[in-house]
Amino acid sequence: MQTMYQTMNDVELAAAIDDLEARVAEVKARELKLDMARGKPSPEQVAISRPMLDLLSADSDLTDGGVDCSNYGCFEGIPSARALAGEFLGVDPSQTLVLGSSSLLIEHDSVAMCWLKGTCGHAPWSEFSAAHDGARVKFLCPAPGYDRHFGITEDLGIENVPVRMTENGPDMDEVERLVAADEGIKGIWCVPKYSNPTGDTYSDETVRRLTSMKTAAPDFRIFWDNAYCVHDLYDEGDELLNVFDAAREAGNEDRVIAFASTSKITFPGAGVGFVAASPVVIKEIAHHLQAGLISADKLNQLRHVRFLPDLDAVRAHMRRHAEFMRPRFECVDAKLHEGLDGTGCATWTHPRGGYFVSFDGPEGSAKRVGALCREMGVTLTPAGATWPYGEDPHDTNIRIAPSYPSVEDLSSALEVLVLAVKLVSAQLALEERA
Amino acid sequence: MQTMYQTMNDVELAAAIDDLEARVAEVKARELKLDMARGKPSPEQVAISRPMLDLLSADSDLTDGGVDCSNYGCFEGIPSARALAGEFLGVDPSQTLVLGSSSLLIEHDSVAMCWLKGTCGHAPWSEFSAAHDGARVKFLCPAPGYDRHFGITEDLGIENVPVRMTENGPDMDEVERLVAADEGIKGIWCVPKYSNPTGDTYSDETVRRLTSMKTAAPDFRIFWDNAYCVHDLYDEGDELLNVFDAAREAGNEDRVIAFASTSKITFPGAGVGFVAASPVVIKEIAHHLQAGLISADKLNQLRHVRFLPDLDAVRAHMRRHAEFMRPRFECVDAKLHEGLDGTGCATWTHPRGGYFVSFDGPEGSAKRVGALCREMGVTLTPAGATWPYGEDPHDTNIRIAPSYPSVEDLSSALEVLVLAVKLVSAQLALEERA
């Protein structure tokens, strides 16, 4: 598709650039300081969880199902929290572990387990290369995707291989072709519901194909980070197929390791993280983690289950979160339509949940748009961050994080983004002619 | 030294065994159920920290030094908690990280960092073997020592090498000889104050020799788990030299990685863990951990610093803990004296702090004493647990954990232990004659 700037004649284009540059200069003079980089809720939104802090006090009963939450023990997590984790992730509570505040850490340690020790009797992934003429262990990374996932595998020396993210999840034709052909591909990173950053949810067909596809690696694992499983903006949320049911039906029960946390439900960074897997694999993970952990913070687990005793309570709480998030997402969509409709300069996603909007400008524009926004006082997630190694092959993608600023600030920031996209698009059109 | 049973004639010995067996039968009939296995405080002792749970409520200020503790960010820990960690570990706060509830996990991840990535520009420890004709990476393990430390290195495939623990710390002649000769020895596990399980504290000379000794490995690391740094039983506690000062004076600042936590100060398993190291090494550790962690639970950090704002507050709180611990330690000592003085059957330590008493019976007795105690309804830490791979070479050592039972139950449990030690000693004397 052509941008409106590409269709202008030279005189029109020069005039358009002059006009846009003048508007950029005006914005710079306003010395804005706005942030759309951070996937974190606003202080007002976080505050809705403050009543949780009143639920444990000096004279509280600190037991749960007979477990003393104030002393060592119960490595696997307290009974009520495992029941909640089972509801979150769609498995029996016995297939869950409830741990500390960071699901990212559990993800890291689960990959590290496979790397250092192997899984289900297979050789450690760290030994694959030496046994296969230096071939590297690889992970599929649906892109645009979550930079911290890609960081975990990169950190362990695993090669990140981007695959195209679609409205229905990763491009499954590509995924199936790759995993069938290469025994070195040991896993895939997935944010299956309201994916980071596109906000798209995997279709039932995608879930079935992921869990049933033939993989050259017998120890292929799906790292299923269901971070936004209850983060609907509307009463009618996206529906995600139960991945464990699908995997079991396909005879690949051990293939899935799933994660979630309450970080964006109660307090970011001070929530409770969960992991779920098949009975065999969850036992492996527990054994691996027990080398470094006597038991996690059970008082915080207790505080959480007293605040959110079941999934119904969680959903009621999430409806309150949605009241903060919905106007922000709607502001993003409205401002982008208002500023960019008919320009041919951009496409963006229309999530019904999660934390992000994925925005694509013309080829070669994203880094320049980010830099220009920064000059105008608006911070965006660094361009490229949504791709493995920070390398967006077409330099188009920008992750918009609307949750933190006020709607007013967000509105101003989006006007800046629109202006930057237009100027960079116009400049690109001019440079093409040179 | 001979036991009294070895000095008896055959008739006397047979009579003694008859008498002891009759007493064992009487105890079994009582169907006791007592536990001296667990290094955890009693529920009454834990309860002294309950007022901490009142300090954060729905209307609290949730900031510390300008940091919003209720949202993501501040990976390194909140300012007040880093100040406290600096006091605990004897370094500038900038050389600390305050993380989640488990210092054991930080220890695990610090060793894992060296294993996977190396430290200070040296090759990863995991590559040592291939580069040195299959020679293994080894760790020195002062024994008797802490089984979970040994478990971390064992888990990573590192070879644990026991070195003799003395009243002044590890046998430094042996340590110096070993580390000077073997480049594969990459570290040593230390619990320098009120060591687990002997309760002994490293002498100044030991600290100086550890930090100044010549090591064949240029990347040798001391893992300094100062778990009991404030856990004095008496107002006059043992004094431990500042290991970072000693290391700096010796020009080996990067050699030390130190740990502590509030697990046995506030709530076991729900405290706050710290790590400290040289500026260079703490930066490495932070970088390594950031692959798997956005930020730790800062609300729990805030709750802790509001309860224990500085080391004076910690010491006042620890004096209250000592009121629970002191009578238990004194009961252990009194009952062992009462039951075993003059028998030649045992020696034990006399800690002035920490959580354990280390007990040694005759050679070849510990496993049998443990089994016999179990038959009489008393659970001890499994014999051998205090040695790498659970292999106590002389099968003499038993770790006594007096903190959990009431003084009354503890007294009964020690009578059982004394009886078991006597019967096993008598049986061993008889078997020698066969």
UniProtKB/TrEMBL annotation, chains A, B:
GO terms for molecular function: L-aspartate:2-oxoglutarate aminotransferase activity. Gene3D superfamilies: Aspartate Aminotransferase, domain 1, Type I PLP-dependent aspartate aminotransferase-like (Major domain). It comes from the Bacteria. The lineage of its organism: Bacteria, Bacillati, Actinomycetota, Coriobacteriia, Coriobacteriales. InterPro entries: AspAT_Ic, PyrdxlP-dep_Trfase, PyrdxlP-dep_Trfase_major, PyrdxlP-dep_Trfase_small. Keywords: Aminotransferase, Transferase. This is Aminotransferase class I/II-fold pyridoxal phosphate-dependent enzyme. PANTHER family: AMINOTRANSFERASE, PUTATIVE-RELATED, ASPARTATE AMINOTRANSFERASE.
